[in-house]
Amino acid sequence: xxxxxxxLAAARSFAAKSGDEKVVAGQRLQQLVLKIPPDSxxxxxxxxxxxxxxxxxxxxxxxxxxxxxxxxxQDASGLMARRLAAYKASLALLGAGRQExxxxxGGDEVGAGGEGRLLEERKAAxxxxxxxxxxxGITSAPDLTEITEKALEAFECGSPLGCVALxxxxxxxxxxxxxxxxxxxxxxxxxxxxxxxxxxxxSWPLGSIGKVLAVLRDFPLSQDGLxxxxxxxxxxxxxxxxxxxxxVVHQLLMLSTRGCRDVVxxxxxxLFDHKEASVEEPNQRRQLLEVQGLAFLHMDMAVKYxxxxxxxxxxxxxxxxxxxxxxxxxxxxxxxxxxxRFEQPVTDALKSLVLGAYQDAAALAGAPWLPQPSSSSAAGxxxxxxxxxxxxxxxxxxxxxxxxHNQAGIAQAIAQLASSLxxxxxxxxxxxxxxxxxxxxxVxxxxxxxVxxxxLGGSGDPGPEAVDGNATPGQRAAALxxxxxxxxxxxxxxxxxxxxxxxxxxxLIGAKEEVAAPYVRVLALIVRRNQATISDYFKEMQLSLExxxxxxxxxxxxxxxxxxxxxxxxxxxxDYVIMLLRxxxxxxxxxxxxxxxxxxxxxxxxxLQSGSAGAPALDASEPGPSQLSMSQLGSxxxxxxxxxxxxxxxxxxxxxxxxxxxxxxxxxEGMPALLAADxxxxxxxxxxxxxxxxxxxxxxxxxxxxxxxxACARIQGDGxxxxxxxxHLLAGVRRVLCAARxxxxxxxxxxxATAALRSRFGALRRRLAEGCLEDFQMDAxxxxxxxxxxxxxxHAHADVLLxxxxxxxxxxxxxxxxxxxxxxxxxxxxQGDDGPDVEAxxxxxxxxxxxxxxxxxxxxxxxKPGKGKKEGQGLTQATAGLRAGQGRQPGGTAAAAASGxxxxxxxxxxxxxxxxxxxxxxxxxxxxxxxxxxLGTMAPDMKLCREPAFITSVLTGAQRALAACEASDLTxxxxxxxxxxxxxxxxxxxxxxxxxxxxxxAPLFRAAQTVILAHCKGRVATAGAAGGPKKEKxxxxxxxxxxxxxxxxxxxxxxxxxVAGLAAVLELAPAPSAHAAEEAALPPVDGLGPAQSAIAGRxxxxxxxxxxxxxxxxxxxxxxxxxxxxxxxxALPPALxxxxxxxxxxxxxxxxxxxxxxxxxxxxxxxxxxxAGAAGVAGARGAxxxxxxxxxxxxxxxxxxxxxxxxxxxxxxxxxxxxxxxxALLNARTHLGILAVAGQHLDSVQSALEWALGKGKALxxxxxGYEGTPSAQQRAENQRRAWEKAALTRLHKAAxxxxxxxxxxxxxxxxxxxxxxxxxxxxxLGAAARAQAAPKGRKKDAPPVxxxxxxxxxxxxxxxxxxxxxxxxxxxxQQPDEEENEDGNEDGAESxxxxxxxxxxxxxxxxKAKRESKQVPNLIFQIEExxxxxxxxxxxxxxxxxxxxxxxxxxxxxIKLPSADxxxxxAGGEGRSKRRRQEEAEEETAxxxxxxxxxxxxxxxxxxxxxxxxxxxxxxxxxx
Length: 1520
Fold this sequence. Notes:
By secondary structure, this protein is mainly α. It contains 62 helices and eight strands.
């Protein structure tokens, strides 16, 4: 011990001295070290409590040049041996992790020496620091190699301190490289590679992964070495404790500055994904989320210092094959979006990923010919489709839920993405017209209901199947954005919740209705889902309410409905809303007043419903509530409920009755709901209606008419202003009287408001039933031309009168059928001694309908040009663009649009849906099922229900009522504002008189089935020959056409809600007969869901109607029924959809004599649309005798090919026959429509192929980058090949169809459309050729060209391109045949009108084609691009893809357009196309001398082409 202490003292003295004293101290230190044997050095190191000081003393003594004089060789060798022993012993100590407490030994084995005590981490770090500091004194390569080996052995011992030994390796490698001399780089590189391989092969200590990475950061690593280190770190970290992961992530991020940033980010995401998948308990999940939050802090700092790290992640998001983002991967993206530089790019990339996933799902669902993804596939097509969209959706929602666990920094970025997604689907707003289609509003409402139901259930995620139907990818993305905001509000902190509410508020200000709708929906869901905590954010909600009166009309009412639950729980909120509505009442804007009226009615109804049970009844003998003072109102009821609120706002409702007609109508429609909510407020509701009713009612029965129509509308300036919607007033009065109590004591008391109103309404019904049109001055002398103010005023009066007649008819129908009738009473003319006089009621109803129909016919007749004072414009022209609907001003003339006047031919009847349903049932049942009367003749009601005019009128009313329901802005607004509460939505729809259109479905189906089967089956098949005698008007045509239109309207509204919505509609339809089911012969299909089973069960019914209308005389009905079948088939699996397509194909083959192109388009379109999925990918190709190809029949392109063959043969005939050879549907009148359908379908096919080929590139990239077992990689490659083969097979079929159409003698517009399709075809061929080439930088890994593409390329060169060049030359290079008509036909043979008309049409079409100067160059350019890609593929592969190409076609072709003076090339003579047509038609015409000369020149040119071809050797034709 004295020697040890002396050594340590000498070392301290050496460190403290300087100058010459230091040299002397160094010599003394060296002498002391030389006295210690190497074995003693090793033993002492193992026994020392703090070995760092002892080791430092030994190593300092061994420094070269420490003494002034050189050492002897023996001394130098001894110092080197002791230094090496110190290194070995120290590294062995680090490897063992324990110090010995006694004994001795001379072995060098790592870990030798007994158990002992654990070495402290602090002491180990000090020891490693000493070893590294003194390592520079070693210059011997063997010694350095031995130290390196011992350090690796210490690391591989598994001790927690073994990784400290690795700290010596970077400096040791540098010294080895310096000792290597001229081969320094090679020595250092090989040594580093060996060390990295050895380190990566060893299982790192789980608690020291970060330390190992920290050491490896100083290594001179290559990119491959970095990748191996990162992979090993990730593999070991998967087994480590979650608390150790932040250190690992930090070191990985530091290591990423050396390169491989993509690998580091991907491995980090996989690490946390693995940890999350292995979590089982909630506590473990919370702990993992906290650790993820720490990891995000490290990433945030790393990206701020290394922007390239963020760019690497952004490039992955934007790549063709982006990573499969989990919740953690998305959190990385949101963390990155929190940095200002990456905010917008990352948000846009994530938005593109979401929209792309939904678009891919929709495209894959519409492409059954592609291999569908399976759950067992490891890669490939599993990256696409609904599975990808569902996985991304689930990950996003999980990420939003995780934001409350130490990840609040990502919440703002999530909210920004949610807003972007919502704006992407903002087309589905409140109004259908604003979105572009009527069904979009219904789809948005259905999506809102699905989101609301899931939100109230606690998940916040309705799942991808909830947003079903016709929802676009944008609408699905908007629904996802709504869910994200809901999850943020529920799981994030208070600050984030305030930000969510503020976000919704900011988006509402100045927004259009379609933009505001989803944010109102979010607020509605937040309020209903968080009623216990929403009051804490009243100030934020108040900001949105301040702009209530300035929002768009439907957005305002939706916002009011959304915040109403807060009014229920907070009186101050209710008072604040009342104040806002009072301000809106006095606004000049119509929408503000309308909001105030509806808002007050809604609030009163809610209060009445909530407290009606405990409210005392009002005595009818007491003074009315409006006569009480405000001080008496508090004692009127025992509560401050709806009755009190009703009295408070009654003055405002009275004011509404003096405002615009739309405001009045809202009050009329809402009054009955107040009475239904609380019958005790009967007099309060009736009192304001009575005086208003009397203003327009003529009380003196000796005077006529009974209604003052002139007071309902008046001329104002150059237009007409509607003053009073009298028909809606009468409808509202009738509903109020039906719901009001009848008190026997006051039934005849005119002092009672209810009795007085009832008696006058009954008198009005009686007087209308006894009167006629002449009483209202409605006769043939009235001007109804809507282009004049007088005619428009007459339309307004007629509209009001028709509505009043309909109200009276509805009351009679209700009384006939035993319902509530407002005009029934003992004093009524239709009352007998024992009750209603059924005969009198029936006759009154028939008389009212007679007057109704007379007025409709009168208006239609007097609205025609020449019937009024102003000539030149009829009703249809003047009212073009009209669309009626609740809350919507109809269009048409400027005067009509400004005044709100609806012309009679576009008006929606005032009948309630219940009344329409009863009349439809009467049509189906041949009467109202009244008691039998002994009349000896047909009952009046039966006679009425058989009258075609009545049936047509009822069906028209039903169809227009359905259209009004579909176009109603209020429907979607109510669904938005009451999202999450179906009960509230039902109550509001009843209050705002939004009809429940499902009530019409069953009776409408029964009536339509009765009408179509009864009249279409017996109708003559032929539609009448053209130019023959004028066919007599069939009164049943309008009836059957309207029945078919109403059926289609109903099914379309159901289909807007998806498969479930369509099934709900068809379940209400009558069951098909056994004969219809047998004729349909549907194939059995297993695995149908309940909704699909319901649709398939009603398919024979639609087929029966389709067969009944499958004749030329029912063309319009056939068109509508094809649309119905299309809606049903779209919800069914391919087998059943294929059966529908077979029905349509049979109709195409048998339906001859059809003269309506629209019907032909509908039938063929139905067949093509659902043939696509009938055969799937099947369709093997075999060689045909003529060198072409023949496909196995079964899919849509097989059918289209047969149609193209029929079109070609039909058009090649000089005189077109009555119908084509195979498809009787094809004739002179329908062939253009059929060509249009074929072109549209080919466009859709090419669009799907563009997507499929583009995704094939992504699948190839994903398959190349897939990491897994070789078998999994092979499965991924097989998936890609199957995808590519399916796409190329379908492209080949489409090319064959276009080749056939190019050979046909098309003229005019079809030629231009065909040229565009051909250009697109060659663009697709070029894309397919590019996909066969190796990716950039991977030419050595280029796969061989697929056999499918080889066959396609060879066929295109041989059988497609020559036909296309010929098509270009004939169609776009021909000259109008004007000289021929002048010179060659003096005998008058060409003076035929049809020939001249055809010549003029051909000339016009040719001129238009020439003006489209870009079509031909674009087509030729795409052909040449395709061939260029084929040449490149041929140069790099074994196959010559140009072997079938013709050099004459490819190199010598030029277009010869005719010049202006008729000279040059072929322009001066007869073109090739004209000569070909003449030869085929066998018509010889005389030609001028110049024409013969042109023919001779052309023949010489053709001979030259042949000679060039003959000079090529066998097999050399077309080679490049």
